[in-house]
């Protein structure tokens, strides 16, 4: 009778232990299933985020390329239309600014004529580094807190020779120390854009007299000839806004050699244009500067691009 009771008690304890094991296994499986589901959801979220970021990046690149092709290929046409809206007495370089929204990304565009600006490479080649520093301080707008640096021309650039050009980026001209570590990725390019409205490092080296403003023309002429000859030429230009270069030179009391020198600094046309593109989507900011120099045919120029 005792053995039967022991057997029954043993069987009851065994059943309880088996039930405990089963419960533990079930709980473990539920926990693992939960972890797997969480992991799958996490990976799914990461994949969705990466896909959205890739899509946005593609949208930005496509937008920049589209804007560049649409505007730079027709730069002269667009600027000439702008000139028609300008009064004769304004005598300011035509500039086109607009803003468009593409796929949720805001693109702010500014098109300008680089040959309506004083060319620093020409000044370096003709007059040397010290004169470049002087005209930069005279014409540059430092309101954006950029300061002129110790100029760092190309190591093989020499005064008296146009090639290689002394400067092919603004980092060789301006000091960016104030912007190091800045949280705003948009602050530096906008400061550069403001500082370089009257000076350039690109183009064929000559200033387009039909688009230059008076201060830029005067600084360019003073870099080419003596101050009195420069003053007489600028006065003739002021009185006769529609004369071409040859007529202006012939209509000014200049020596023959002075006329020839001015022809190295001045021109009637433009073959170099710049396009600033400021991108904004959410909290992200980006800026692209594209410069194109053409030989006269639309779309035949090599594009130089800078990214911030």
Strand content: 15-25%
Taking the alpha carbons of the first and last residues, their distance comes to: 93 Å
Tell how many strands the DSSP assignment holds: 11
- Strands of the widest sheet, in order across it, are 1-2-9-10-11
Instruction: Count structural domains.
Output: 1
Overall mean confidence score, pLDDT: 83
Provide the helix percentage.
Answer: 40-55%
Show the helix and strand layout.
Blueprint: H1 2-72, H2 75-84, E1 96-102, E2 105-113, E3 118-119, H3 120-127, H4 129-139, E4 147-148, E5 174-175, H5 187-195, E6 199-200, E7 207-208, H6 214-224, H7 227-239, H8 245-250, H9 256-265, E8 266-267, E9 272-281, E10 284-293, E11 302-307
Parallel strand pairs: 3-6, 7-8
Antiparallel strand pairs: 1-2, 2-9, 4-5, 9-10, 10-11
Helix pairs in contact: 3-4, 4-6, 6-7
Using brief descriptors, characterize the structure shown:
two-stranded parallel ribbon; alpha+beta; 48% helix; single chain; 308 residues; five-stranded antiparallel β-sheet
Description:
- The chain has one domain.
- It has a five-stranded antiparallel β-sheet with strand order 1-2-9-10-11, covered by helices on one side. Strands 3-6 form a two-stranded parallel ribbon.
- The protein has nine helices and eleven strands.
- With 308 residues, it is α+β, with helices and mostly antiparallel strands.
- The longest helix is centred in the first third of the chain and has 71 residues, at 2-72.
- The chain has helices at residues 2-72, 75-84, 120-127, 129-139, 187-195, 214-224, 227-239, 245-250, 256-265, and strands at 96-102, 105-113, 118-119, 147-148, 174-175, 199-200, 207-208, 266-267, 272-281, 284-293, 302-307.
